[in-house]
């Protein structure tokens, strides 16, 4: 039995020896196959890691915890890549664009930096080897090489940072130009396609803070998109090239084993990664809400001060701030424990794997490798140790998934803005409706759409007046006025007076009937509190024209001064320092002066129709009449909302809302109406004295 056992052992040794010899002979071919397989594996793994995949139940639960119901879903999935592709077509319109050229430059610099890193790794090993071998001449030459390679290395690194920043600016510029074009529109955009900035704030509930999304979110998205390319392309390139060079030094067999261990630990790390993309989107949303609460405080400072609402506003701002802080603290705790796990695996565990790999040529003789001295072993170890930067590169690939998740958050925000603006331009709105809108009759009205026909006169035929939240003020409004017929509109608050103007201006959709009206450019609105723009005194009168447009119309500053004389405001030019003086005009002018400037603006533009919403409430009656008469002289048809009886004589027609959904449209006889108004006031005064007279009569009966 002992002899048989010995023979079997010898057979096994002979078989192993033959296999080893056969493997040694074919090892170069095996190495090439393993290297090619490794490259394909790295590319495939990277693609699968970044490609869309269904959201797992665990990840779905994380997302639900991270974002509120109704918010855009944030994950690295098919929807994210669909959104990203759409935005990429905007920021990189074609391969000949400057953004595409900068990407090519960026890629070239990334390859150059990796090549320099490989050279530096080999040079580092030679420097240490020359020290171990005590060869001063070799050491000096290697130091000179080190200093020389520093020139292209520093140049390349600086250019990489510069090109990445330029890419971020280019992306932001492309996106901002498109968004502002859609947001503010063009001069030729009217009806449903125009006034997107107004409709986002008033007709749709999806975008709460468009100002923050345009300024902050687009900037963060652009910076993240510019960085993600470097964070992905450079590590993947490093992993491939470093591993190829490392396989030449220590063998592809050990490299494959190392890759298996790294992948197993990476899978563990990925399963423990919190939903950073959802956190990013929610952080941006909460920051926007906090900023909005502060902007409201500044916008309504006067009203809040008069109402002594400081404590209430402070509570509201502190509530928004507390929500932000609670979320940030939650994210901070998640980042802390994830950072501990991440560093423990990526830096220390993977580092120990790399050290074991570097030790293979020292403790084992590789097939086909020549015998080397201590200096050679030291050189090989140092070079291989530097090449183990691929471990860090693989770690950066892992980190890039976190960056990609954050990019998904910004992409969701920017995409939501773009998609909502596109819907709004098409007349698709999403807004919370009042409870009455759900009734069958009201719902039928809200689902309908009317017809708008361009005409010189204004005519409504069975048009419902509906607010954006679905409140039906008038079910069927019909009236007609011709150009030159001034219309007075009266009625209680909330009855639909301003709603009529918004339909005429193309701000609100028409839910039924037929509206015949001139284009929106034929209307100018003068509200009770006129809008004064940033700029010169001249800009206040000619807004929204520029000085060049004013000159092109053949109008000079002397003509503007004549207009100011009509409203008795000519002294303001000298008082404020001339036409080119710049002020915060809403603070520099009184309420009455603001209304006069608005009337001067009306006379400058001389439109067909003027919408006056309590536009003379702060000027004296004599000035009110002067401006009305001058507007009539210019051929401007006035649509006036006012409760001043002194204005009745300037209007030919009246539209009177009763506040219950009804109305009366008829000719206005100012003298008769004024007489009736006077009689009504006398009767009301007498009726108010009846209770007092009855009480006095009861007292007299007691005597």
TrEMBL record:
GO terms for cellular component: peroxisomal membrane. It is found in: Peroxisome membrane. InterPro entries: AAA+_ATPase, ABC1_TM_dom, ABC_transporter-like_ATP-bd, ABC_transporter-like_CS, ABC_transporter_sub-D, P-loop_NTPase. Keywords: ATP-binding, Membrane, Nucleotide-binding, Transmembrane, Transmembrane helix, Transport. It comes from the Eukaryota. GO terms for molecular function: ABC-type transporter activity; ATP binding; ATP hydrolysis activity; long-chain fatty acid transmembrane transporter activity. It holds the Pfam family ABC_membrane_2. SUPFAM superfamilies: P-loop containing nucleoside triphosphate hydrolases (SSF52540). PANTHER family: ATP-BINDING CASSETTE, SUB-FAMILY D MEMBER, PEROXISOMAL LONG-CHAIN FATTY ACID IMPORT PROTEIN 1. This is Adrenoleukodystrophy protein.
């Amino acid at each position: 039995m002992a002899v048989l056992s010995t023979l079997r052992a010898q057979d096994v040794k002979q078989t192993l020896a033959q296999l080893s010899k056969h493997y040694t002979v074919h090892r170069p071919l095996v190495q090439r196959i393993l290297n090619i397989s490794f490259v394909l594996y790295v590319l495939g793994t990277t693609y699968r890691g970044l490609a869309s995949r269904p959201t797992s139940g665990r990840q779905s639960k994380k997302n639900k915890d991270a974002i509120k119901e109704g918010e855009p879903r944030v994950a690295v999935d098919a929807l994210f890549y669909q959104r990203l592709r759409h935005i990429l077509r905007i920021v990189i319109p074609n391969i000949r664009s400057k953004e595409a050229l900068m990407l090519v430059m960026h890629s070239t610099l990334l390859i150059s930096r990796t090549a320099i890193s490989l050279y530096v790794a080999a040079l580092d090993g030679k420097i240490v080897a020359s020290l171990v071998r005590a060869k001063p001449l070799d050491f000096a030459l290697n130091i000179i090489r080190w200093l020389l390679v520093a020139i292209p290395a520093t140049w390349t690194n600086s250019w990489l940072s510069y090109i990445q920043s330029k890419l971020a600016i280019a992306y932001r510029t492309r996106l901002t130009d498109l968004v502002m074009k859609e947001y503010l529109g063009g001069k030729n955009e009217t009806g449903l396609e125009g006034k997107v900035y107004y409709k986002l704030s008033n007709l749709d509930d999806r975008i709460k803070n468009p100002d923050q999304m345009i300024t902050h979110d687009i900037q963060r998205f652009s910076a993240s998109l510019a960085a993600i390319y470097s964070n992905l392309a450079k590590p993947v390139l490093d992993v491939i090239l470093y591993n190829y060079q490392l396989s030449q030094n220590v063998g592809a067999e050990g490299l494959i084993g190392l890759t298996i261990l790294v992948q197993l630990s990476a899978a563990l790390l990925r399963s423990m990664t919190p939903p950073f993309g959802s956190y990013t989107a929610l952080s941006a949303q909460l920051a926007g809400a906090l900023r909005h609460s502060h902007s409201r405080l500044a916008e309504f400072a006067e009203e809040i001060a008069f109402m002594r609402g400081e404590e209430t506003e402070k509570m509201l701002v502190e509530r928004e701030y507390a929500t932000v802080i609670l979320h940030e603290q939650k994210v901070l705790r998640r980042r802390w424990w994830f950072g501990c796990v991440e560093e423990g695996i990526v830096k220390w565990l993977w580092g120990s794997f790399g050290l074991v790999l570097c030790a293979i040529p020292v403790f084992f003789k590789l097939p086909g490798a020549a015998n080397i001295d201590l200096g050679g072993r030291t050189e090989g170890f140092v070079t291989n140790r530097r090449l183990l930067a691929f471990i860090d590169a693989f770690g950066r690939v892992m980190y890039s998934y976190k960056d990609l998740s954050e990019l998904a958050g910004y992409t969701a925000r920017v995409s939501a803005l773009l998609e909502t603006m596109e819907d709004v331009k098409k007349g698709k709105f999403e807004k919370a409706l009042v409870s009455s809108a759900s009734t069958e009759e009201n719902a039928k009205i809200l689902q309908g759409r009317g017809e708008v026909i361009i005409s010189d006169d204004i005519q409504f035929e069975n048009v419902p007046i509906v607010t954006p939240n679905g409140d039906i003020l008038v079910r069927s409004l019909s009236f007609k006025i011709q150009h030159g017929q001034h219309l007075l509109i009266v009625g209680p608050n909330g009855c639909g007076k301003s709603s009529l103007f918004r339909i005429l201006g193309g701000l609100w959709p028409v839910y039924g009937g037929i509206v015949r009206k001139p284009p929106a450019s034929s209307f100018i609105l003068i509200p009770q509190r006129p809008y004064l723009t940033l700029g010169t005194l001249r800009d206040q009168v000619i807004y929204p024209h520029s000085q060049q447009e004013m000159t092109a119309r053949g109008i000079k500053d002397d003509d503007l001064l004549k207009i100011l004389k009509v409203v008795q405001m000519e002294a303001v030019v000298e008082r404020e320092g001339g036409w080119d003086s710049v002020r915060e005009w809403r603070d520099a002018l009184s309420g009455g002066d603001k209304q006069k400037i608005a009337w001067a603006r009306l006379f400058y533009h001389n439109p067909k129709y003027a919408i006056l919403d309590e536009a003379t409430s702060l000027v004296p009656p004599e000035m009110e009449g002067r401006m009305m008469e001058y507007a009539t002289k210019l051929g401007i048809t006035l649509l006036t909302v006012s409760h001043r009886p002194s204005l009745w004589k300037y209007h030919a027609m009246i539209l009177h809302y009763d506040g219950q959904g009804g109305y009366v449209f008829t000719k206005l006889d100012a003298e008769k109406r004024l007489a009736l108004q006077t009689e009504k006031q006398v009767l009301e005064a007498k009726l108010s004295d009846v209770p007092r007279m009855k009480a006095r009569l009861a007292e007299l009966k007691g005597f």
